[in-house]
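Record pair follows.
FIRST:
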Amino acid sequence: MHVIVFSPILTPRIKYIFNFIFKDILKTEVEFTGNKEYFLQSEHAKISYADKPLGNELFFKNSSLLLSNKVEILKLKSISFDDYKVPFPVDDSPFPFDVFSASFFILSRYEEYVHKEESSLNFKAEKSYQHKWKLLKRPIIDEWALLIKNLVRKKYPSIKFLEKKFSHQPTINFTLKPDVPEGFIPKTKFIFSSVFNKEQKYLSSVFDDITGLNVNPEITIESLKSVHSNQKPIYFVNFPSDSKNRLKFEKSSLFLSDKLTGLSRPCTSDKEKSASLKIDLLKLSKIQNSSINLSSQQTEDLRLPSCYLNLLSAGISCDFSMGYEETPGFRAGTCTPFNWYDLQLEKVTPIIVNSYVLCDNAIQYLNLNDAIKIVHTFIDVVKVVNGQFYSCWQLKNLSENVKFKKTRAVYIEMIKYAGN
């Protein structure tokens, strides 16, 4: 037995959000139909999403959002549900709101499309509806999915749902230093260029390495080896700006040959860097196993939809950018990976979005106990819904340098608490 969904109008939005809730979160098959007779005669678990029920099926009253194909400013009404607010209120339905429209609105980042039209500024957590509705700190779509699951099971006891398991995946980002050329004169020119050339501002860390002022990525990764005994992080690599493509990374990247790697900062606002995205991907392909899907992470200044459109054109199929760098929480309302939905074209894209819950930037000014408490709290809420816990860290903050003692301690505690 699987779920069969009836709707008089089957839009791409309806299919997308029902597939996400039933297939991705609840792990059961879902079928769609607009044929009343076929639906009523079906022996599967019947759900209708319409203005009124057809018979004795599990009925959810629809609102207009999933029936539309436009992106426009919405005058959203909200009502209280549990200890938070919810949008799209409806009557005569299992919940006092359209749970599928609410889920789609949050998951698709609908409000960020509207924000794009109104402002050139980066979208902040405190501007989000989830913050206003007190939903940001919970994987609310996963929680709603479990409520729906209970309703379906109560109505159709013989239906089967596969069980998901909690998992966690740390991600770590850093700038890869280019190879220092051999010979006194080439090396001297390289050092002076790295310090004084504005285009190569990221290369100043090379000078810091030589003078002992900087954190060494290879040493730091090696120092975390025992921490990662059973857990492989993904290392997101940023390549320094290099419009002439003269920098080489063959030697400096050898320590990454057996690591999971991806591209950091693929959607930076720097025009020259943005234009070199495909060049950076070629550099990355020389580091990573070619059988691994191209992945990326943009922890700062994530702008939708432009960033994801860039990723699509570059062939990147897996992304870890969905989150707020300075505010812990669930930007897309879920801890389950999902396909990004392009609201401009009204279609599901191949990009798999893995939402991170917190960044080290969000806890850097807290004391150790408060930072650990936040990490524990978010791991716990993800465990309740058997979701995926993603976090992102700057490699330098995990070094054994006394300056980063606190963030390294929080990271190690996170790995232990989540289960190594």
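SECOND:
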Amino acid sequence: MHVTHHATLGGGCFWCLEAVFQQLKGVLNVESGYAGGDTESPTYKQVCAGTTGHAEVVNVTYDPLVITYRELLEVFFTIHDPTTLNRQGADVGTQYRSVVLYHNDDQRQVAEEVIEHFNQLGIHDQPIVTEVKALEVFYPAEEYHRNYYLNNPGQGYCRAVIAPKVAKFRKMHLEKLAR
């Protein structure tokens, strides 16, 4: 039986992360949701208010024989700014923090290694401030968030924010694209 793995990552708006990870070879499913906080079963409105402690995250189901956890993190650290604390562009608040929510000790170790490696290479102008912590629980987002970019390409935020991120990602990671 073939085993799939999960990666749970937050780097600003989950719509942006979902739009990118859906295009990677080896990624079987991407689900937007909330994690890292202490409010049970939060709503989008509650998370956006910044009072739940949760971040907007994606839970990525992937085939480790096609793409590794390390490769997912290498993509993750190039598609958002992991050097800004509690913000991504105009999105400000702890709900938009850069966070790796690891599922096991191996994932924790790989995340720490990738962060150290990126910092040593000077990939970003500032040090990475991504939070690395254990995933306690993942709460799926409301249905209307699923496939948001695919379903709403003409929406203002999608055109102004997500489309340029997707284009940059596609250019940088051409060899990893599913299509």
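COMMENT: The mean pLDDT is 93.
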